[in-house]
Design a protein that fits this description.
The chain is mainly alpha-helical and 89 residues long. The chain has one domain (3-82): Acyl-CoA Binding Protein (Up-down Bundle). The chain has helices spanning 3-15, 24-39, 52-62, 69-82. The longest helix has 16 residues, at 24-39. The model has no long low-confidence stretch (mean pLDDT 93).
Length: 89
Amino acid sequence: MTEINSSFEQAAIAAKSLPERPDNDTLLQMYALYKQGSSGDVSGDKPGFFDFVASAKYEAWEKLSGLSMDDAKKQYIDLVKKLGGSVED
């Protein structure tokens, strides 16, 4: 496993036990970076208008289209570290 993938997995685990719950915008950013880093560009149909949470997640992920998976992983790791998550380099 590459170093970036190992750190990404550590960050995903650390994100579940952050010292404080991030605000909703930060949570959306974390979700989008995680999905972009693990799955690449957005796929599937956009959720219905009245499914507000799923629509917000989809749109946040969609905004990252074109960002490489490795860059998304790096940004995700950096964000989790900034929020107080323990991730080894």
